[in-house]
């Protein structure tokens, strides 16, 4: 079978799974309703199945259909057009870099197409590449317009497949430059810097970061003392006004180990969150934290994976109370933080780690929480695909339990989704949907269930209308 047919069959296969799941849901709903009207259930079942076979999803009802509005926040929930917005998503960090080259550009479209086919609606990716190969920022405030256009393309393709983006602005780690590259630039400029953590406190390095943030939001064209907003070269929509952007992320996994008190990182978060919001008040903002508890809540340290986690300069509660931060982020890496050998202890940790953060997001922070990275590496000792399936199902079930109550557990982003032919980029966590049918089924079911919760019925009925029994039969029956 040629490559074109494999792609077509993949998209068709998983698209039909979502259609079938929604068809089952609506069968339950209509049967429940018909009983009150005196219509025989079997007759209604046959009619509904025929409608699903003959007409597909459009005539079954537009479950979760919505205008392409900006994502906002209402209390501890995300909202779009005044409706709740719970999502299932993924990470693919390298999209911008791949979009630069015509030989790899198609992979961007491919991963969006495959993600959309299983109902994934949010993608987290990098909006930075500092001083590296195919760098966006070649040196402080010096940009490669071809790479900027590649980011434009990523945004336009995401919108085409109805996928929103969380865009990260720099990295704690050396990959793609990050804070260490800013320190190198500072040293080259003659600054007396002794640690990569000087990124968080040195005024010059802070100005470099702010200039990058400004460049992302605003074009570098200045005329008559007016800075013109950047317009996407593919969509002609300014970044600040584009609903395709779900949120901005200050940094991927910030840590400041030189200051375990957390004061240095906290000051940076407070300053940069306010700065980003001053430029773009339209979009949501998050920090990019892994979720470790710090000194502000010593009683919560019991939920950390190890004692070292309290010493990396982050503080889940305190950091997320900074002005301008709209929602919390948490990562889940039991195999990195507890043991690289697969065991039930990983699942036990996942359950307590997630529930603690959902509880804190609801009761203390009063904001949504997104589990922005989670996965299992094939390089782990004792790895098997069955454990990965169980791990993912555990994450999804905990989130669904929160969603059912209209809670703070608002979404997850698996690490990470790859199309075929990108194996050389795999860090062990990559999932190729066409090669992982069981994972695809798990993702598709979770996506369909969340689609229901985003429907107008769930919102208007405040999570409990006459269709509740039919909905819950579908939402919590794992064999479907």
UniProtKB/TrEMBL annotation:
Residues 71-415 form the Glycoside hydrolase family domain. The keyword Hydrolase applies. It comes from Tetracentron sinense (Spur-leaf). It catalyses: Random hydrolysis of (1->4)-beta-D-mannosidic linkages in mannans, galactomannans and glucomannans. Signal peptide: none annotated. The chain crosses the membrane at residues 14-31. The keyword Ligase does not apply. Pfam families: GH5_mannosidase. InterPro entries: GH, Glyco_hydro_5, MAN-like. This is mannan endo-1,4-beta-mannosidase. Keywords: Glycosidase, Hydrolase, Membrane, Transmembrane, Transmembrane helix. It comes from the Eukaryota. Belongs to the glycosyl hydrolase 5 (cellulase A) family. Its EC number is 3.2.1.78. GO terms for biological process: polysaccharide catabolic process. GO terms for molecular function: mannan endo-1,4-beta-mannosidase activity.
